[in-house]
Amino acid sequence: MARSGIDKQSVKQARQALIARGENPSIDAVRVELGNTGSKTTIHRHLRELEAEEAAKVDADAFLTDTLRNMVANLADQLQKEAQDVVDKARTDHAEQIAALFREIADRETQLSERDKQLQVLSACFAEEKEEHANTRSALESAVEDKREQELRLKDQEARLSEKASQIASLEEKHQHVRDSLEHYRQSVKEQRDAENRRFEHQMQQLHVEKRELTQKLGEKQEELSKMARDNSALTTRLTDAHAALENQKSENQAQASELVNQSEELRRFGDIETKYATLEETHDDLLNRHQLVQDDMRSKEVELAGLRAEVATMTKLLAVFENPSTGQTPTNTKRGRQ
Q1: What are the phi and psi torsion angles at 24 (to 5°)?
Q2: pTM to 2 decimals?
Q3: pLDDT in the model for residue 189
Q4: Is 108:276 a contact under the CB 8 Å cutoff?
Q5: ∠229-232-233 over CA atoms, to 5°?
Q6: Any idea where the domains of the chain sit in the sequence?
Q7: Could you tell me how far CA 127 lies from the centroid of its own chain?
Q8: Tens of pLDDT, residues 287-320
């Protein structure tokens, strides 16, 4: 299989090696010398060109004097030396540039490694914040559920409180009716006593005449007074019971008011949880923005690193061209001489 890249210089070197060993530089011998690579047509063309060049050189040497040949040889040596100096300087400059580029690449890789570490730290922080955010969200959902239950309990307590208030109003109305009845009774008793006093004075004037009748009527009146006293005692007992029921209802209302205060404190704590959740949301967004900035910076550094590597590859190719000056051909001639 023919190998691309067999040029005239390679054929020339193989031909000179065969001639130096005293062998015939035939097409097959040259191909074997080249390692069984290259097209025979290409090798044949290069051999003909080399033979033509040698023939022309012999003809030219026949017309040159020794002085001119020495001058040409000296000029060729000087040109070779100057070209070698240029190549050496170019090689030295290129080596320095390559070293500088490698140092810059090392610095950039160090920076990239540091950015990777920063990214790992930020990723860990982000994971922790995300976990805390999930925990907070779970706590918030639990708090919302508790709040909903508390609101239901609060509505139930309000309904019970409204019912108790209605009962208190009813008891107060009954108490007022009892007080009105008692006041009416006292007024009636007072009026009756006034009437009795007037009647008693009238009876005192008729005491001697109506002693027996007054004694009988007095007994009747005493019985009525005893009955009224019993009724008054019963009404007083009912009034005392009503006062006790009212005091109990007030105690229950105070307990329910304390429970409402505790529920208000729980609602305030729920507001604090919502505030903390909003703060965690802002922290989460900030970490996301920082993570995006670090990724953008890393992509920019990777683009710069790829550019530097391309420059190194270009300089390496140029150095390879300068290190092969003995061909006596430009890159354009070499390209035309290839298959």
Answers
A1: -80, 125
A2: 0.23
A3: 85
A4: no
A5: 90
A6: 1-63, 137-297
A7: 8
A8: 667 767 767 876 776 787 777 778 777 877 776 7
DSSP state of 327: G
- 8-20 and 40-63 helices cross at what angle (nearest 10)? 70
**What number of CA atoms fall less than 13 Å from residue 332's CA on the CB side?**
0
Supply the pLDDT for residue 329.
43
Please list, residue by residue across 28-67, b when 16 or more beta carbons sit within 10 angstroms of its beta carbon and e when fewer do.
ebbbebbeeebeeebbeebbeebeeeeeeeeeeeeeeeee
**Which contacts of 41-50 are long-range, i.e. CB under 8 A and separated by 24 or more positions?**
42/2, 42/6, 42/339, 43/6, 43/11, 46/6, 46/7, 46/8, 46/11, 46/12, 46/337, 47/11, 47/15, 49/8, 50/8, 50/11, 50/12, 50/15
Residue scoring higher pLDDT (84 or 312): 84
Q: Which secondary structure element, helix H or strand E, spans residue 206, and what is its range? A: none
Q: How far is CA 177 from CA 69, 81, 173, 242, in A?
A: 153, 137, 6, 11
